[in-house]
Amino acid sequence: MLSAVLAAVLLQSPAPSPVPLDYDRDRPVDVQPLSPTDRQGVTVKQITYERLDGTRNAATIVLPPAGAAGSHAAILYLHWYEPPKPSSNRTEFLAEAIELASLGTTSLLIDTPWRVEGWLASRDGSKDYDFSVHEAKEVRRALDVLLAQPSIDPTRVAIVGHDFGAMYGALAAAADRRVTHMVYMAGNGSMGEWFLFQPKREGADREAFLSTLHPLDPALALARLSTRPVLLQFGTKDRFVSVENATAQAEAVTGPKTVKMYEGAEHELTYTATRDRIAWLKEQLRLR
User: Fold this and answer.
1) Residue 22: phi, psi to the nearest 5?
2) How far apart (Å, rounded) are the C-alpha atoms in residues 234 and 226?
3) How far is CA 280 from CA 28, 185, 191, 227, 259, in A?
């Protein structure tokens, strides 16, 4: 069943004002590189950088082959929350980033707080709103790291996100015009409903919680992407995101969009989804 929040989006109820996601763009990111390695002819560098909260975050930069001519498309990858699966961290999209780097892209893959097993159950639910605002700002901070790389083409900058990565990626993209393209994989249209998986809330407490988180709903953020192309990918057997929820989010996108619903696919999606995503990025980012 659709939540009241998502149903309101479908009925085109007045959207709340966008949540301010401004931050200090002049604050140095203090990138500290570790030893680079060569992978299939492209450069893979492990780095750390300083987050807005002062902690250091691990990330991976994947660069085109040395000497690649011209400017490069840029992709920020944001992973899903599915521990203990080994892809529930910045490695989820590494093979994809390497493949696209061979065509001239520069990618940044970051770790997030939700990479930790048990994170959802152990968090302080009273801070979900503040946490979400902050993490959307941290995605913009990661864009600073990515766009500081050499020879980036500012007209070809994509965010690719899965699960929580999709949801926070959409929030950041809606607030940051530097993002020109968005890939949204198996996100939930309601931020509050996602957090309600653990712990559960009932009655008036549940409705108050959903109302508080409503301004941060990814469905609203997707609607604010306007003319920027979006690829949405969902599975018909996803136990976390129903077909109705996925359809509502797709309908919220009013600009250019491609919607892929994979029959029988679960939350992880499929190899076919990966190939479709790569093909879409090649076309949209004009890769050769």
Assistant:
1) -75, 155
2) 21
3) 33, 13, 26, 16, 11
Are the C-beta atoms of residues 80 and 111 closer than 8 Å to each other?
no
**Rounded Cα gap, residues 72 and 84, in angstroms:** 34
Domain boundaries, the chain: 29-284
Q: Is 192 left (phi over 0), alpha (psi -120 to 50) or beta?
A: alpha
Peptide bond into 199 cis (omega under 30): yes
Tokens 């001239």 locate to 104
What architecture (CATH level 2) is domain 29-284? 3-Layer(aba) Sandwich (3.40)
Q: Say which residue the tokens 């300083």 belong to.
A: 50
Mean pLDDT by 10 residues, the chain (288 residues): 46 63 94 85 95 96 87 97 92 97 97 94 94 98 97 98 98 97 98 91 93 96 96 97 96 97 97 98 95
Dihedral of CA 79/146/258/137: which sign? positive
